[in-house]
Amino acid sequence: TKRSDVSNSEYAKFVSQEVPRDEVSILNSVFSHLAYTFHKNPSNTEAMDAYNGIAFTIRDRLLKRLEDTDSHFISINAKRINYMSMEFLIGRTFDNAMLALGLRKEYSAVSNTLGFNLEDLIDEERDAALGNGGLGRLAACFVDSMACCNYNGWGYGLRYRYGMFQQQIINGYQVEAPDCWMDNPNPWEFPRPEISYKVKFYGNIAKTPSTSSGYTWENAVEYDVMAFDTPVPAFGTKNVGNIRLWSCKTNDLFDLNRFNAGDYPGATGNMVAADILTYVLYPNDNQNAGKELRLKQEYMFVSATIQDIIHRFKLTGKPWSEFHELVAIQLNDTHPTLGIAELQRILVDEEAMSWDAAWDIVTKSFAFTNHTILPEALEKWPVPMMGKILPRHLGIIFDINLFFLQHVEKSIPSEREFLSRISIIEESSPQQVRMAYLAIVGSHRVNGVAQIHSDIIKATIFSEFVKVFGSDKFVNVTNGVTTRRWVNQCNPGLSALITETVGDESWVDDYPKAHLLESRVNDEDFRKRWWDVKQANKLRLATYIKDTCGITVNHDALFDIQVKRIHEYKRQLMNILGVIHRYNTLKKMTPEQRQDQVHRVIIFAGKSASGYYIAKLIIKFINSVADVVNNDKDIGDVLKVVFIPDYCVSAAEVIVPASDISQHISTAGTEASGTSNMKFVMNGGLILGTVDGANVEIAEEVGDDQIFMFGVLAHEVDEFRFNLRYHPDPLDANLQAVYDTIKSGVFGNPDEFNPLVECSHGPGDNYLVSVDFASYLMAQDAVDALYKDRESWITKSILCGSRMGKFTSDRSITDYAENIWNIEPSAVDA
Ligand code: 9GP
User: Fold this and answer.
1) Residue 355 CA to chain centroid, in angstroms?
2) How far is residue 705's CA from residue 607's CA, in Å, rounded to a whole number?
3) DSSP strand E in 406-565: where?
4) Is the peptide bond before 375 cis (omega within 30 degrees of 0)?
């Protein structure tokens, strides 16, 4: 119509204007948001208001770019990658966005004009902690890289109201409190009420010959699930990414009649039932209700996502046969695997497609990433539970399994035993749906996240599938991290040195250029500045420790850091047992001898799953040991032990740049990759690690002799476990002495800590702490010896920092794009 023609052309003029980037215009737009969005003027503007006012102007700029990016990709019919992840550990966005837009200096001046220091405003932002650990942070790095590398990629996830949990340490114990991160306005998301889909649960399946598949899903409970978009700023390009998170719409579930009758819980019951679906990440699932909630969360997530993907595909007007040419769907671990059954259901039940045509589309579109060999990754759902909540999907999964097993029987003559081992349905009581197997069968590629891990899954948990599908279906994509956040943003001192060496800031999105640092390894002035940057970062962390834990540490000491989820396989327990050994050794020395030792601050941080008894006991144990060591006047500054509470992305940004050494000491074969190991080394920290996960490839890149490696190898683990059970060696004398100290009661009631003694030696030592303890201590001695030789230490630190070009998430994403997604980049301006 005439009206829309006019407004379209006016709009085209409006959006084609560049958003002004000068300080005065920025200040004016901040004033405008302060006045008209927040009803504030400069005299009553508090720090939180200033943060919001500024953040909203950044958001305006990001939205403009998001709109341009979307239009660009639609206009060229670009294939889109849909990264489905139950976790996105985004952290803070403010600083990252200013850097990405290239406007940090301008915003700093604007905040000064408002009477605030930009650094203080940065601290006003709450972390978006929608993830547990490595897997969620990886997803956040990946959306950053998809945007920065100009791929048409979106993340899809859930909008948890309470994120994970806030960890408090009370009397040394972890106590979980809700993380109310949404209490303040969130400038980085915008609600899209117009983008909503119906998601169904329960009900029954009716045979209806009139439909093409012959089935309909009846009497289901329906929820409206709505989108919230979070633009992802990208550095060095005008492309902007997006994370689309889902939450239920609850208002129309309010029952006014019951309310008027005085039945308030009844009136709001359905609202609450819908709302709690996205209260928290991974509700505790040790009881049935928790399990059901988790299954519903997963389905709500995949159903809304798949419907959205289909909706966008239909807008292209292309035939279904081209679906996989326009859509790639990556499953981040098994949690979104129901998406396979959901797409198949929609195609056969709602789009009247034949089973085979639908399955062809499904398997060409999906790919699956495995992130661990531990049993928790191999999610299973009881068949009766799935039948109750998702009756149609259960039927579809049984059919997928039937056709798969028939195919196997035909192609490789198989015994019943073999078929039952690879069946998607486990014949236990009750039967279980093996989600990892469904993910493999329904995907065209399966990848591990570091070379050793990809090799292990092919040889162990998925070996039978390699026989069925051949080896080519199983590939490796080694993880990576975004250097925009993990070097440029978190370590301004180091960034300045790299920029000076490279000659410009191009390294920020072309990190391999940091290899030029190596050319300065013998430059005296450079070496001194390198050391000084580390010292400044350690001072910053020392201040943070004082503020959060009340402990004073000397930043001249060696900072030895282990930060990650608390888990037996990651062996924080071995670390703290090593601390006790160090403490015992120091106690035996004269004061003069003690002062001669390398002074160390040993720093832990990380959360334990709320129901994980041993991990929580390890936290308590670390704090009890810390209490004794830190208050021992004989020891003074020579040894300090710190547990930093509530580890999160923004804490990591302070911790990572400050390490001299960081520990990545999982039992060989158990840590799929690890990504903090990459961050630490990029920031000039050395690593003490086992031959596990990405440590192996880091050693290959930086050189075996730059890294402190110890411990048994992955292929030896089973034999050591067997020996521990049936033919244990005598206990190492140092470990025995450590146990004696624990049993003496210096750290508190020894009975309380006895389970830790029991799970670190003999038959209970599943993670081989006692086996690796002696070599661990030797490696620690080597660290001390090198630290005394400051010049050699600096050399290693520079060489390590400069050789990490491989470990950017840009490289990982390019690997996925080329080897799995078959997708080309395209920049908005190109
Ligand atoms: O434990 C792995 C960790 O090694 C890896 O770096 C990360 C990202 O790939 O995923 C972790 N796995 C999980 O969090 C659960 O599967």
Assistant:
1) 36
2) 32
3) 425-426, 432-434, 445-448, 474-476, 558-563
4) no
What spacing in Å lies between the alpha carbon of 693 and ligand 1's midpoint?
A: 10
Distance 677 CA to ligand 1 centre (A): 12
- Catalytic residue at 565? yes
Question: What is the DSSP pairing of strand 661-664 with strand 558-563?
Answer: parallel
**DSSP state, residue 424:** S
Query: Helix or strand or coil: residue 535?
Result: helix
Closest CA to 100 of 481, 489, 497: 489
Residue 654 burial (C-beta neighbours within 10 Å; 0-12, 13-18, 19+):
middle
Other beta carbons within 10 angstroms of residue 448's beta carbon come to 26
DSSP β-bridge partners for residue 369 = 332, 447
Token duo for residue 616: 């929580």
How many other C-beta atoms are found inside a 10 Å radius of the C-beta of residue 125? 22
Place of tokens 């400051």: 790
CA distance 110 to 95: 14
pLDDT in tens, 464-484: 999 999 999 999 999 999 999
User: Mind listing the pLDDT tens digit for each residue in 770-786?
Assistant: 999 999 999 999 999 99
Cα Rg for the chain, rounded, in angstroms?
28
Which residue reads 């390490």 in tokens? Answer: 659
- What is the CATH code of the structural domain delimited by 534-804? 3.40.50.2000
538 part of the active site: no
Contact 426, 385 (CB under 8 A): no
Range 238-264 average pLDDT:
95
Burial of 193 (0-12, 13-18, 19+ CB in 10 A): exposed
Strand partners, 247: 226
**What token pair was written down for 655?**
């911790």
CATH code given to domain 21-377+469-478: 3.40.50.2000
Q: Classify the complex by whether its ipTM is higher than 0.90, answering yes or no.
A: yes
> Which position among 670, 675, 690, 741 bears the catalytic label?
675
Answer whether 166's CB lies under 8 Å from 179's CB. yes
Residue 679 falls in the annotated catalytic set: yes
d(CA 657, CA 207): 62
Ligand 1 centroid, distance to 699 Cα (angstroms): 19
Here the tokens at position 530 are 């390198």
Point out the catalytic residue in the list 59, 473, 565, 811. Answer: 565
Residue 290 has a CB neighbour count (10 Å cut-off) of 14
Cα 617 to Cα 635: distance, rounded to the nearest angstrom: 25
For the CA atoms of 568, 572, 575, 576, what is the dihedral angle to 10 degrees? -100
Tell me how far CA of residue 160 lies from CA of 87, 154, 179, in angstroms: 10, 18, 10
Nearest CA to ligand 1 atom 13: 135
pLDDT digits (tens, 9 = 90+) for 482-525: 999 999 999 999 999 999 999 999 999 999 999 999 999 999 99
Q: Where in the chain is the domain with CATH 3.40.50.2000?
A: 21-377+469-478, 534-804
pLDDT at 55: 97
Pairing status of strand 708-710 against strand 639-644: unpaired
Tokens in use for 505?
A: 């800031």
pLDDT range class, residue 461, cuts 50, 70, 90: very high
* Pairing of the two strands 204-207 and 190-201: unpaired
